[in-house]
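Bench notes, afternoon.
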Amino acid sequence: MVVGAFPIAKLLYLGIRQLSKPVANRIKAGARHSEFFKTYVCMPPAQLYHWVEMRTKMRLLGFRGATIKPLNEDAAAELGAELLGEVIIFTIGGVCMIAEYTRQSMNSKKKEEELTSKLSGLQDQISEPNQIRRAHV
């Protein structure tokens, strides 16, 4: 019975992804309570998101040129904190995917190099007797 190697890297990535949600929640909670984060990190993307969302909905419903009121400060801070949390989770997931892809490509490159060296070794073994026969003839 052949047992494969324990996928420790995959387990590590899964653990990181599972931890990303509580970490994102902690950062969101900190962002809600910090005035700096509220004012400069959470609110501008939330207002932009709200503006784009409302503009798109208005155009789909046929209202052109309607003015869009900005969100109030509390709603913008809440939406911005949620967006920040989602960006953090998405970024961690993307980094894990890139790391796994890089690891897999390195493993496949290593296997390919091993096969190439085996093949060249076999070709050398095959050509050796032919060279010895030619030398005796």
